[in-house]
Amino acid sequence: xxxxxxxxxxxxxxxxxxxxxxxxxxxxxxxxxxxxxxxxxxxxxxxxxxxxxxxxxxxxxxxxxxxxxxxxxxxxxxxxxxxxxxxxxxxxxxxxxxxxxxxxxxxxxxxxxxxxxxxxxxxxxxxxxxxxxxxxxxxxxxxxxxxxxxxxxxxxxxxxxxxxxxxxxxxxxxxxxxxxxxxxxxxxxxxxxxxxxxxxxxxxxxxxxxxxxxxxxxxxxxxxxxxxxxxxxxxxxxxxxxxxxxxxxxxxxxxxxxxxxxxxxxxxxxxxxxxxxxxxxxxxxxxxxxxxxxxxxxxxxxxxxxxxxxxxxxxxxxxxxxxxxxxxxxxxxxxxxxxxxxxxxxxxxxxxxxxxxxxxxxxxxxxxxxxxxxxxxxxxxxxxxxxxxxxxxxxxxxxxxxxxxxxxxxxxxxxxxxxxxxxxxxxxxxxxxxxxxxxxxxxxxxxxxxxxxxxxxxxxxxxxxxxxxxxxxxxxxxxxxxxxxxxxxx
Length: 490
Known about the structure:
The structure is a single chain. By secondary structure, the chain is α/β, with parallel strands linked by helices. It has 19 helices and 20 strands. Helix 4 crosses helix 5, helix 11 (322-331) runs parallel beside helix 12 and helix 14 (394-401) packs across helix 18 (457-469). The radius of gyration is 23 Å and the shape is elongated. The two termini are 12 Å apart.
């Protein structure tokens, strides 16, 4: 029997992306298909999304959806085979037809009506799942709604407190980062179209206002996080960001399912972005990519380790410690190529460090997908000193490309990287370097240890081969999600 799942999110590759959420939402339909799950994705009608729809058809209209007219468009992605990935787009120009990023304006400020923009997405999801869309005289409902992060967090609340029709529709909410919660003041509750009973501790009320992620955690039939360790971590005050009590209360309804990566897109043996393609049996060809990357970042060409960073420049990512350890990194013979943007003070500190070490530090502000592929293929080790990391994808890309991850021991980083300690080296299973404590001492010691491993070519190559043989595709994770859906529906 085929399960029909409506996946609800604020972004998905290749249409719109600000982070790993988009990668997950874009990859899940194909991962679930072999397990009898037919996934349709619902996205907001940003200009970029509308422009990518192929042969869109209006299939439903709302005169007032959380206070604004809207219509539902059905289509598929341009450039894909018909029916590969069914897509629904919520076309509400007053909410989504604007310049800027999905959540912020051109100056980086949150849109003041984000509560309405994503409440409308949740309301639409509940209506669609409940059968509001009629085709050939029959309601086209879904068996289950899978809501992603705070932007879709109200969908389970609408399904519970104000469902469309009598059919009971199950729901799952996935927490990609519990730090982002979508809180609004109490004045918005009266505009959500929810009954008074939803204003409760087991509903949408949170610290005297409306908590979108909190609503999803309280109302969904199951909660997932994007790694097993993160599922445990958010039960503590250190990682739960105020929601740890609710996570604990949900008990066995909380599951940790590790993210995967698209093994077709992230494959160094076929990657069109690389100067030289290679596999674990042809690692010598990586040197071509390394030399090309040195040229691209104006770095000295030598035999020392080339470290890379591809990240947002934020406190969460531990990037405030990076400028402090750069002198040490250079002192042990390393060089650094960095791609990222974020905190202006961190950008300045990194450029100052680059000025102190010409030819040793190269920085690109912004994001470039093809360049990130070239960096993974040409770098020796990727630095990920995150203070918390629900799953992380860059370390998985590094493993696939033989760019060994140097990671803080947290969340999905701890779940996916095997530290090159003496026991792991003796057992032949090491895939990277882990360290505790995102401090100068902890990070600098990890860099020193990585450089020492790099200077043992046979050991380094063995670790690279271990990393590249790991399977972090969506195969296992897709089955885990499908099993969870089946258990809920049973």
